[in-house]
Design a protein that fits this description.
- The complex is a heterodimer.
- Chain A has a six-stranded mixed sheet, with no helix packed on it.
- By secondary structure, chain A is α/β, with parallel strands linked by helices.
- By secondary structure, chain B is mainly beta.
- Chain B has one domain.
- Chain B contains one helix and 14 strands.
- The termini of chain B are far apart.
- The chains are: A alpha/beta, B mainly beta.
- At the A-B interface, helix 1 and strand 1 of A face helix 1 and strand 1 of B.
């Protein structure tokens, strides 16, 4: 009975871990080549610019001159910024100390796939450990019972 | 015991797959781009909404306030493989400047005609004030510039200029085209509330199932041109009763006050 309960607990943990984190892993995939949105913005002068992008997209921003640019990018947006020293660029409220990022460098979300893969894996590991312990316990009980019968 | 364990495992896997599938099958969210700016300088950019549509805009002035929006709905209506997209630009320039918006429809359900439509709007003045507004939407069937409910009037305006240029056109990409343009000095106001373009037809200044608001007024000196050609026919409210034309080119110049109450045009 205990084995059954443990098996169910492990199964539920596995289900919750998969449901919770798997969609994040999918959502963090780079935009599909055919349906992804690509946004290229160039700013030159002394301007206050607000850029907001959501959905799976690639956002490339170039800034020349003493402009102040605020970028509000959703979790699925890959942001590339190239800005002059005179400019101030803020990404999701955070000032970019070194705005000249390498092209194609994802600005955020790179940790998520590791996390999303780790939790289901941990759930699976826990499941098998509990299952092994339950098997050992059952074997031990059977042995003890056998000795008593013998 | 082994049977129970097997059942539990199967339940876990099936539940994960079932609920996970629901999460993935949910509608893909819109891709939304919003850009606003205020100050002196140049802002330009482009948004490519997959292979469905793209827009390119430019705004340059010593003093300007601008707003650009793009939405890729990622909705794939009827499973035709084409997402609906909307692009809009709203700019106010002072002390001279230039602004433009070009929207390209790049994908279509081919039974409705091929893609290749364009909508373009442009204004330039070296010293006056100007505004430019347009909203353009694309889907599997056509391109429509429907400004009713957003900005129904004053889609291009110029005031206090020694010189200005303005231009507005729709192109089917398949031999049908309509354009109104003007240059001069003083003030100008172009209303172009609705326009449509598909492979088989363009409508400039009317469409979208809405009343027609296609007038042009100017003060000062200037010249305007209304130009269209079609594969079969070109007509305009400026020449009511005209039949049999496959193209036309009307040019008017003025010194003082000038007005066209309705320049709406169809070419197909």
């Amino acid at each position: 009975m205990k084995t059954l309960i443990r098996t169910f607990v492990a199964s539920i943990f596995l289900v919750i871990a998969t449901l919770t984190f798997s969609p994040v892993a999918y959502a963090d995939d780079p935009p599909d080549e055919d349906s992804g949105t690509v946004v290229d913005i160039e700013v030159d002068g002394e301007l206050e610019v607000d850029i907001g992008v959501s959905g799976p997209a690639e956002l490339n921003v170039g800034v020349e001159g003493p402009s102040e640019v605020h970028i509000d990018a959703g979790d699925e947006v890959r942001v590339n910024v190239q800005a002059s020293d005179e400019s101030q660029v803020f990404l999701d409220g955070r000032s970019l100390d070194n705005p000249a990022q390498e092209p194609d460098e994802p600005a955020q979300g790179s940790v998520v796939p590791v996390v999303s893969g780790a939790f289901p894996a941990a759930g699976l590991l826990a499941f098998f450990l509990i299952r092994r312990r339950a098997k050992n316990k059952t074997r031990q009980l059977n042995n003890e019972k056998g000795e008593e019968d013998g | 015991m082994k049977k129970l364990f097997g059942i539990a495992l199967v339940v876990a896997v099936v539940t994960s797959l079932a609920f996970g599938s629901i999460a993935f099958a949910a509608d893909e969210p819109d891709d939304v781009v919003t850009i606003t700016w205020d100050g002196g300088g140049d802002v330009w950019g482009s948004v490519t909404a997959g292979n469905d549509a793209s827009a390119t805009f430019y705004s340059g002035s010593n003093s300007q306030v601008g707003e650009f929006h793009a939405v890729d709905s990622n909705n794939n209506p009827y499973g035709y493989g084409v997402d609906s997209c909307t692009f809009s630009l709203d700019i106010s320039l002072s002390g001279g400047g230039m602004a433009s918006l070009l929207v390209d429809r790049t994908d279509a359900k081919t039974s409705y005609g091929a893609a290749g439509q364009q909508s373009y709007t442009y204004v330039f003045t070296p010293d006056g004030s100007a505004t430019l507004q347009n909203s353009s939407s694309t889907n599997y069937a056509s391109m429509k510039d429907c400004n009713y409910g957003w900005n129904a009037n004053d889609h291009i305006t110029v005031s206090g200029s020694t010189y200005y240029e303005l231009q507005r056109y729709v192109d089917s990409g398949a031999g049908n085209y309509a354009e109104i343009n003007a240059f001069g000095g003083g003030d100008a106001d172009l209303d172009c509330m609705s326009s449509e373009a598909s492979a088989g037809q363009v409508r400039l200044g009317w469409g979208c199932g809405c009343y027609t608001n296609a007038d042009f007024t100017a003060n000062g000196t200037g010249t305007m041109e209304l130009y269209a050609y079609g594969n079969n026919s070109a007509t305009t409210a400026m020449a009511p009763g005209m039949t049999g034309a496959t193209s036309f080119d009307f040019i008017a110049s003025w010194a003082g006050a000038f007005s066209i109450p309705d320049y709406s045009t169809t070419a197909n």
